[in-house]
TrEMBL record:
It comes from the Eukaryota. This is Major facilitator superfamily (MFS) profile domain-containing protein. It is a multi-pass membrane protein. It comes from Exophiala mesophila (Black yeast-like fungus). Residues 299-327 are annotated as: Disordered. Belongs to the asaB hydroxylase/desaturase family. Keywords: Membrane, Transmembrane, Transmembrane helix, Transport.
Length: 863
């Protein structure tokens, strides 16, 4: 017979995540004499959230465990009724609790019972040890205080104990009667995002102790057991010093169930909660030494916790964690150099094919294949970013093997393109290289985390140092290869240097393990396989459909089918990520909704738009060089010299951020102003004519100066918008958005450009030819042959010149439409920048990660 369950929709109070807590620790004072503390009673604001789903696990109690979920429903045989006698509670009752705990929890070598409290739904007029059920989500200690308690109570054994694992676990149970209303509800600790955890000081006249509050997240999963009896209860993990298990803590509280009470027979909830520390290092069993909690008159929503002498009574609540002096060792700088090299080299295929892709396609007698070269690379890197991102939360060896594998894949991709004998091999090599580049470009966050946070923007620039060389020099060497050498040499040299980067990372790059530290079996089991399949199944057809828009009409089945199927599957992916049961989703909701999207979502949108502007400039400027400022790219040296202006401008912008960013501060305004400059002057490229090269170069350079400043700062924003342990997720998502935005922008720009040029060319050519003396009846014949090489021989020079000028004007019209289109994207980007949260408070001296094979490895929180 099935067990009857009663799921709840209830109300709980959560701490509000105020910006104030970046500089001032949350606190609450329990004192009648506030003048002694010289501040308001509390700086805590609570949020009341209704309609929270709480699942009844009656009948499924054995499916939950203390280590994995942070709580464990239990049954017990404790025989004790004298709950009105504190002395007997501290003696007989705690003896039985200690025995229960040691039997129920494996691995425990001893216990220290130091606190108990009784809570009653309707507090009576007598009984000093009573408190009301707590509606605020909390745990009874924080990470700092559990260490302090061990040191205080364990004396000389404390340091030895703290080298091992210590858990603070609460035992909770009803006293006499079945609990119908105000049951204890518990949260699966694995669903609590780290940014939602707040250490809070509880201050009395003589003592202070830290407890933990939690801010609201829709991803929190709540449970309770309906109608618990006196022989049932909970083990609740308040804090765990180890990170090797599923849940580090279990936030909990009490809720009204709406139970219909018969006042004559109803028994209000009465429960007792015992707090104890449990080390996994052998110690003598120590039983309750501190005084029980004495709860005086307070409002029913105020929480009462044992307070201990962990700081002197006159000490104020601490501010931010004190910073140690950051030290970047020579070995770290060596690894930084290797990471930057690998990152930049992975980008080689893009400027090569942007410069000479059409020539390479012509060499293989397959001109249409030119549309696929860069598109294949962008598609692969976009999908690669997301796949590697889902693996990053369970990265068992830090980022080491991800980056090493990236060097290997990119090495292979370079060789495939270099050895290509047909267009298909080029596309295959670009695809392999793009997939590997997604891993190599993890350096954009793997490198900055080795440097102080205040250098985060500089670290992102350093990661791109080799990219500057690539975008400035490679277009020149590529054009030289087509015109007098061998374009394949770019890929051979790239492969050789990528191999050196592989060896450097293999021998010297040893980051710590990822903070989740999951065992391999658990990690593989908990991967978001469904999310990966749905994302690839949705994004790949969309990206293919976008590429097809440059080859087929927009109503062709190649375009329509791919886009429709892709968007349908992508919607399914979004639904799965939001409502599925994956423990490590590809796109965790809390990352996007943190501070109403201002921490991560807004910078991500800005990042996509900034990259879209790079692609608009990368189409407009080379096109103008080829069509208007040189004779189809000849002489090639002049074309190559003009093409370097874009890369140099980006480099100068990045260097400006590096040298002046920290002096200016006001990071959000730096971001907004640099993006605005990029958008304004990029849009002014719409003023292009075949003759105003100086003005066009000026606008392009100023726009790219803004781009160089904005792109790297925006990447830093996305990194700082998530906690350190979610940096892999941030890098994957932001990289995916960045390159997906680029793919969409490139397709849109090429589509509007191609359509505009196709529309204007016959119109402008016919008008120009007629004005040059061609009769109206001869215009149809001219329009059939003006693009052929023989045209210059069959028509007078004046007509040829006029038609050539008309073709330039048609191309300029297409360029103008690209600039106008980019303005629409740019406005969205400026709005996104205005929504970003300033990161000045996070620009501190802290180094998040030290190399494990270096002298400061002990500073790592995780190893």
């Amino acid at each position: 017979m099935a067990t009857e369950t009663h799921n709840l929709s209830a109300t709980l109070d959560f701490i509000s995540p105020l910006d104030l807590y970046k500089t001032q620790k949350p606190y609450r004072i329990f004192s009648q004499d506030l003048t002694a503390h010289g501040r308001p009673r509390s700086n805590i604001e609570l949020e009341n959230h209704q309609g929270i789903f709480i699942q009844d696990i009656r009948g499924r109690e054995d499916q939950f465990s203390l280590d994995e979920h942070g709580f464990q429903p239990i049954s017990h045989t404790i025989n004790f009724n004298a709950f009105d006698d504190p002395a007997r509670i501290s003696g007989e009752f705690l003896d039985q609790v200690e025995e229960l705990i040691l039997n129920k929890i494996p691995g425990v070598k001893g216990s220290y019972l130091y606190d108990w409290k009784i809570r009653q739904e309707r507090r009576p007029k007598t009984g000093p040890f009573l408190a009301s059920p707590a509606t605020t989500v909390h745990t009874d200690i924080d990470g700092e205080s559990i260490v302090a308690r061990v040191r205080r109570h364990m004396g000389g054994a404390a340091e030895q104990l703290l080298k091992g694992r210590v858990r603070m676990v609460n035992f909770w149970c009803p006293l006499e009667h079945t609990v119908h209303d105000w049951p204890l509800v518990v949260c699966d600790g694995r669903t609590v995002p780290e940014p939602n955890i707040f250490s809070v000081d509880q201050i009395s006249d003589a003592m202070t102790v830290g407890v933990t509050y939690v801010s609201y997240s829709p991803d929190l999963k709540w449970y309770y057991v309906s109608n618990q009896t006196k022989n049932e209860g909970w083990l609740i993990k308040s804090w765990d010093t180890s990170d090797k298990f599923g849940a580090k803590l279990c936030p909990h509280g009490s809720v009204a169930t709406g139970y219909q009470k018969d006042e004559a027979s109803y028994h209000p909830r009465e429960s007792i909660e015992v707090t104890n520390s449990m080390p996994e290092t052998e110690i003598p069993s120590i039983k309750f030494l501190s005084k029980p909690t004495i709860c005086k008159t307070m409002s029913e929503k105020e929480e009462v916790h044992q307070v201990d002498e962990e700081r002197p009574k006159d000490q104020s609540p601490p501010g931010p964690e004190p910073e140690v002096e950051p030290v970047v060792t020579p070995k770290t700088w060596g690894v930084v150099t290797i990471l930057s090299l690998g990152y930049g080299l992975s980008f080689i295929p893009v400027p090569v094919m942007a410069a000479v892709g059409a020539n390479v396609a012509a060499e293989f007698n397959d001109p249409v294949s030119a549309n696929w070269y860069i598109a294949a690379w962008i598609t692969s890197i976009t999908i690669g970013f997301t796949i590697w991102q889902v693996l990053s939360p369970i990265d068992l060896s830090g980022r080491r093997w991800f980056l090493i594998m990236g060097q290997a894949l990119t090495f292979v991709g370079h060789l495939i393109v270099g050895r290509a004998s047909n267009a298909t091999m080029v596309i295959a090599g670009m695809s392999v290289g793009g997939f590997g580049a997604a891993l190599c470009q993890m350096a954009a966050f793997a490198l900055p985390e080795l440097l102080p946070n205040k250098w985060r923007h500089i670290g992102v620039v350093i990661a791109d140092l080799a990219v500057y060389f690539v975008i400035i020099v490679i277009p020149v060497t590529a054009r030289y290869g087509i015109n007098g050498g061998d374009w394949r040499v770019n890929f051979y040299i790239g492969a050789a240097l990528q191999g050196l980067s592989f060896l450097g990372l293999y021998f010297f790059y040893y980051p710590p393990a990822h903070p989740l530290g999951l065992p391999l079996g658990v990690a593989l089991k908990e991967l978001d396989y469904i999310g990966m399949v749905l994302f690839i199944g949705g994004s790949l057809p969309i990206l293919l459909g976008i590429v097809y828009t440059a080859i087929y009409p927009s109503n062709d089945l190649h375009v329509v089918v791919n886009l429709v199927v892709g968007f349908v599957v992508l919607i399914l992916f979004a639904l799965w990520e939001r409502y599925g049961f994956s423990k490590h989703p590809l796109t965790p909701t809390e990352v996007f909704v943190r501070r109403k999207g201002r921490d991560f979502t807004a910078p991500c949108i800005a990042l996509a738009v900034i990259n879209m502007f790079y692609y608009s400039s990368s189409i407009i400027w080379p096109t103008m060089i080829s069509v208007c400022y040189t004779n189809g790219g000849q002489p090639w040296r002049e074309a190559a010299a003009l093409s370097t202006a874009q890369g140099l401008a980006i480099t100068v912008g990045a260097l400006g951020l590096t040298f002046f960013g920290s002096m200016i501060r006001y990071w959000q305004w730096q971001q907004t102003i640099s993006v605005t400059i990029m958008v304004i002057f990029g849009s002014l490229l719409a003023l292009a004519t075949p003759d105003n090269m100086g003005m066009m170069m000026g606008f392009m350079i100023i726009s790219m100066l803004g781009y160089g400043w904005a792109i790297y700062l925006c990447i830093a924003f996305t990194q700082m918008g998530v906690p350190q342990q979610q940096l892999g997720i941030s890098g994957g998502l932001s990289g995916c958005v960045r390159f997906a935005g680029g793919a969409i922008a490139q397709a849109v720009y090429l589509s509007v450009f191609t359509n505009e040029v196709a529309k204007k060319t016959p119109e402008f050519v016919a008008a120009a030819a007629e004005q040059a003396g061609v009769a109206a009846e001869d215009l149809p014949a001219l329009l059939q042959v003006f693009a052929l090489p023989s045209f210059a021989e069959d028509y007078p020079a004046a007509v040829v010149a006029a038609v050539g000028r008309a073709q330039q004007e048609a191309v300029v019209s297409g360029v103008r439409l690209i600039a106008f289109t980019s303005l629409g994207f740019g406005i969205v980007g400026i709005i996104a920048c205005l929504c970003c949260v300033d990161v000045d408070a996070k620009m501190n001296n802290k180094i998040e990660v030290y190399l494990e094979n270096d002298i400061y490895a002990e500073r790592n929180k995780h190893h």
